[in-house]
Here is the input.
Amino acid sequence: MPLTGKGTTSRQGIRRGEKHTGGRALIVVVSLSLLLLTLGTREGPAAVLSGARSVFQTVTMPVRYVGSLVTAPFTAASNIMANLTTDQETLSELRAENQRLVARNAELEEAALSTERLEGLLELQSAYKLTSTGARIISGSSDSWSATVVIDKGTSSGVAVGMPVTDSAGVIGQIIQCGPSTSLVRLIIDENSGVSAMVQQSRAQGVLKGTATGSLRLTLIRTDQTVEVGNTVVTSGLGGVFPKGLPLGKVVSVEKSAGALYYEIVVEPLSNAESLEEVLVITAISEEQRATAEDIAEADEQETSGLTKDDALKPLEITEDEDESTDSDW
Here is the structure.
């Protein structure tokens, strides 16, 4: 019985303590409410709303964070689908624009290259004071045993058989047939070609001939004359067909056989016939562009090997069949 009385007293004390604790909490809440109300009254309705908004945001922040994590994948997927739709709609436009830009870039590059080539022709024309007319190559050799090209100028443009033809680097050939609006040009690399030439550095004179392999041979240069690899070969002006001093090629090989009177000289042409596009046709030669009397005297002194003086003065032999102007074009 005494134990029972003590236990009952303890439980009642606990209840009273809980009531006191709950009462104190209530007092604290009421006091805070009165304080917020007082502050809100002093600061106005805006302050009350601001405080309430702040409390709301603080309380709901965890919920909003969890919600954003849940909806993020769906939002990303929606954005991806929108982007895919946009890409599909604009892909064809982008491709078309890219093709247009590529074509325009190629057009500008071609125009720049053409301008560069024409500037080179004008520089050659000005440097050598050439009386000439411009022409464009429209086709190459029609067979495998000759080196010729066809240009888009003929007799109606004042072009005639025998006229020299150059590109921006120098001499490339000579006209051997003419039509009203086109002409056939034999290139100097053709094995039937021959041009009176000299080594620019030593002034040694000879004849530059084409070969079946497309290289050039400088013949009739005596072994007591000076010729070195890298020397420039130019037209000598003998014969009055080519203006004196026009570039022809570079010496790439000089050989002297035992007991030989003449060098074996290989010359590389300055131009590649396959890449030629625009050319100059030299329509007239002035007296200053012809070989001088001194040049002719030096040529007379040089020995010829199986060639007469008249042969040496024929820079490019044109056969009777070739020396014709035709009424039809190729």
